[in-house]
Amino acid sequence: xxxxxxxxxxxxxxxxxxxxxxxxxxxxxxxxxxxxxxxxxxxxxxxxxxxxxxxxxxxxxxxxxxxxxxxxxxxxxxxxxxxxxxxxxxxxxxxxxxxxxxxxxxxxxxxxxxxxxxxxxxxxxxxxxxxxxxxxxxxxxxxxxxxxxxxxxxxxxxxxxxxxxxxxxxxxxxxxxxxxxxxxxxxxxxxxxxxxxxxxxxxxxxxxxxxxxxxxxxxxxxxxxxxxxxxxxxxxxxxxxx
Length: 242
Hints:
There is one protein chain. The protein is mainly alpha-helical. It has one domain. It is 68% helix and 0% strand. The chain has helices at 26-39, 45-65, 72-94, 104-109, 117-144, 152-173, 180-190, 195-211, 216-237.
């Protein structure tokens, strides 16, 4: 959507890790994810997450166009700036640059034969919800010149869509009867992570970051600690099971 293409130009890049380019509209984000899907083999761990996120982004676009969000402008802005955090990590990895700590385990383990597709999907969701979502809320508040509370309804609606998708992911990507020997440890491993708790933590982190916006050094330090902590959880989720 053209009305949000100016967002990144309004960011104060001294406060938090900034996006490298101006974010496109929702349709452009979806097209970029489709391009990524075509370039990577289906067994690639990042490709597993990309397929999941592409489904989420396509559904978000339909919901925005269908009027589910009272403020389409804010919902589109949050959705696009959120997606750009993931796509920036993809671009960094492709260029040989260091990715954020939250994404590093997924890119490092993406071809490990002992990591199951469900683990890749949840590790990507963990990185994106646990770290990127908090920063995307701040990005959007800065772009729209509003407080986080103004985005809470859109935040919750996006979260509801993700929660429904998470359940489907767990059902679709759990091992079949031929892999029962790893089903129990996998069930235990992924059962230790909750999207609902991650989403609640992201909202709290966004509010803290917004409160620290006049203290840029503390804001950067908090963002770095958040990044590192989410990355540690992701590394645990990607524990090889064979």
